[in-house]
Amino acid sequence: MARVIPLTDARAAIPLAAAAPRVAPTGLLADSLGRSLRDLRVSVTDRCNFRCVYCMPKDVFGRDYPFLAHADLLTFEEIARLARLFNAHGVEKIRLTGGEPLLRRNLERLVEMLAAIGGLDLTLTTNGALLARKARELKAAGLNRVTVSLDAIDDGIFRAMNDADFPVAKVLEGIDAAADAGLAPIKINMVVKRGVNEREILPMARRFKGSGHVLRFIEYMDVGHTNGWRMDDVVPSAEVLRIVGAELPLEPVDPNYAGEVAERWRYADASGEIGVISSVTQAFCRDCTRARLSTEGKLYTCLFATQGSDLRGLLRNGSSDERISDTIAAIWLQRGDRYSEIRSEHTAALPKIEMSYIGG
Ligand code: SAM
Ligand code: SF4
Ligand code: SF4
What we know:
- This protein has one domain (10-358): Alpha-Beta Barrel (TIM Barrel), CATH 3.20.20.70.
- The chain has twelve helices and twelve strands.
- Strands 7-8-9-6-5-4-3-2-1-10-11-12 form a twelve-stranded mixed beta sheet.
- It has helices at residues 10-13, 76-88, 107-115, 131-141, 155-162, 168-181, 201-208, 237-247, 312-316, 321-333, 345-348, 355-358; strands spanning 39-43, 93-97, 121-126, 145-149, 187-192, 214-219, 250-252, 263-267, 273-277, 290-293, 298-300, 309-310.
- Helix 3 runs parallel beside helix 4.
- The chain binds S-adenosylmethionine and iron/sulfur cluster (SF4) (2 copies).
- One iron/sulfur cluster binds next to loops.
């Protein structure tokens, strides 16, 4: 049962506007805009075997890029301890991400430790490269579902986007293995970048229509500061829906729950559904209940944050659960992030944290 933890010594570290903990209508801890803390994304590695042009461009993330040393990463024990404390504050869903989470050795052991907490919806976002090998053991360890990123069904376009010469066929193998293992319903994430893979919108829709998997089109975002994002590169979701709907008629579907990130649409012939994630053209900050834990244990309250709060220091200096819990509460209570609602050319140019580090 989630509880609101009173603030004690955390107040000394983080000044708060109000002395009493703020509570959302749900009875949970609420931030300064009344949003409760429900989801935690955990980046388990800042490394990746792809170099997607919109995420880890090769000219920045080259051979000499200073990735974190293993000792800097949160250990599985540290992640599990934090997960328990977040769970007590109301977090009911944890997504493992990165970087490429399947590059973290023995990840299934972490999944097992998180599953042992009980009552958590455990999911993972992956590029799919290692999924065929790992799907079964992840499921056995207690993972509920996976989201697989795939930006094109055309092999040449996909290889150009992942910039690691990785073939589509291997990702499709991973998706099949995940479905066989029961990690369903599987979501397929496609980031759409103008002039790069926009002509893949229809082929991707055709390929996954009737498959039981939910294809989600994501607007290209200005995360980090290395991908050279420009508004002109964004293909608005409205345009994606027009393109798909012109050939494959669509009907809107109600959200599964309040604050769902993807807007749902189903094929009029009942052969499945798709989603659109319109983080640029239709910001959804007002319902954002997500916190992010970076690879080295910093807590970020927004994907576009420029600063995080160090929890690893507390974990490693002998702080009590209560102290760490109070710190998490204090950080959430003063959260006022709504980056996507106030995005401009100016904010896009700010030195934001890279997605591979903060966790996508
Ligand atoms: N490596 C894993 C993968 O690619 O699925 C997990 C981490 S990745 C950062 C998480 C998600 O963020 C992926 O679906 C990816 O396509 C998406 N993403 C990365 N950069 C993005 C950007 N600039 N705009 C929109 N989505 C982005
Ligand atoms: Fe790696 Fe995922 Fe980023 Fe692509 S989107 S570079 S697969 S972390
Ligand atoms: Fe949440 Fe920040 Fe994205 Fe808004 S911009 S939806 S606050 S992560």
